[in-house]
Specification:
The termini are far apart. The protein has nine helices and six strands, in the order βαββαααβαβαβααα. It has a six-stranded mixed β-sheet with strand order 2-3-1-4-5-6, with helices on both faces. The chain has a single domain, classed as Rossmann fold, CATH 3.40.50.300. By secondary structure, the protein is α/β, with parallel strands linked by helices. Bound molecules: guanosine-5'-triphosphate and magnesium ion. The site of magnesium ion (MG) has 6 residues, from α1.
Length: 277
């Protein structure tokens, strides 16, 4: 029976959700800008389809805003999420709360796994929005994979490992966080993407893991095809270069000059012999 699995990109605003959506999908979706609340509405894209008809969807969402104030306010209510979702926030006047409400509603109703992005260039302790946003996600209860974004250009593995450990340690107190993985939107590699799909599979409830395994096979086949196409293009180009011949006009004694050069390099036969034509 084919299944549909929904992954949701969630983060504080301006951390890089839409940029990562573009990287994972391989096409320019949505709007990317260095400003808060650029993405206004949740937006769904099909990331993969398996031969059996399973579908992996990727949801881009608006960013959380003013999370510390929001969670402080929510703690005053006995039923924080119910109260929050029942409020009518003005989309223009209360943009941070309006955007946060969109995310909470989407995650509650749609997500199978939340991909929560953090800016790895920041120290975990100084990224003050992470704790309230984890509390918010904890109230909803969907599983979370944390992705370290903005790691910068590829570095020594030990440096990435240190960042991972620091963030994993910081996030340990939220049991909804299943894994912390590196995935910079600009510098990621296929190995990291494969590790992410593996983690998604492990995070899903058992009956849905078979569908994710089929989707991972489809992803591997797609990447193999991309690799083979790239190798074909490279081989064809090298073949053309290797087979290229240029006829030389001997009017200026070019052949003689080449023979002299060849002889100086020890390529021609000794004088009297028939050198290369
Ligand atoms: N260096 C670096 N910059 C990034 C990375 N990902 C995103 N950015 C930059 O961060 C800024 C915000 O990116 P967006 O993708 O619009 O962020 P968002 O989380 O979708 O933002 P909202 O929709 O406004 O919540 C842009 O200037 C991106 O170029 C990354 O991996 N590395
Ligand atoms: Mg966005």
């Amino acid at each position: 029976m084919p299944e549909s699995i929904a992954l949701s990109l969630v983060s504080h605003t301006n951390v890089g959700k839409t940029t990562l959506a573009r990287t994972l999908l391989g096409r320019d979706v949505g709007e990317v800008r260095d400003a808060p609340h650029v993405t206004e509405f949740t937006d769904v894209h099909v990331l993969l389809r398996s031969d059996a008809g399973d579908e992996l969807t990727l949801w881009d969402t608006p960013g959380f805003g003013d999370s510390q104030r929001l969670v402080r306010r929510l703690r005053q209510d006995g039923n924080p999420l119910g109260w929050f979702l029942a409020q009518v926030w003005d989309r223009w006047k209360d943009r941070p709360f309006w955007a946060s409400q969109q995310v909470v509603r989407h995650v509650r109703d749609t997500s199978d796994v939340v991909l929560y992005l953090v800016n790895a260039a920041e120290e975990p302790a100084s990224a003050g929005y992470v704790a309230p946003e984890m509390d918010l996600l904890g109230w909803i209860g969907k599983p979370v994979l944390v992705l370290l974004n903005q790691l910068g250009p590829p570095r020594a593995a030990a440096s990435d490992e240190q960042d991972l450990q620091r963030w994993a340690e910081h996030l340990r107190r939220w049991p909804l966080v299943h894994r912390v993985l590196p995935l910079d939107a600009f510098a990621r590699c296929w190995v990291q993407e494969a590790a992410l799909w593996h983690a998604v599979q492990d995070t899903l409830p058992l009956p849905r893991q078979a569908a994710m395994a089929r989707l991972r096979l489809a992803w591997t086949a797609q990447r193999q095809q991309v690799f083979e196409d790239a190798m074909q293009a490279l081989a064809a180009s090298l073949g053309r270069l290797g087979a290229a011949r240029v006829a030389l006009d001997d009017a200026g004694g070019v052949r003689g000059t080449l023979r002299q050069i060849g002889s100086a390099l020890g390529l021609a036969k000794q004088a009297g012999g028939a050198g290369p034509g």
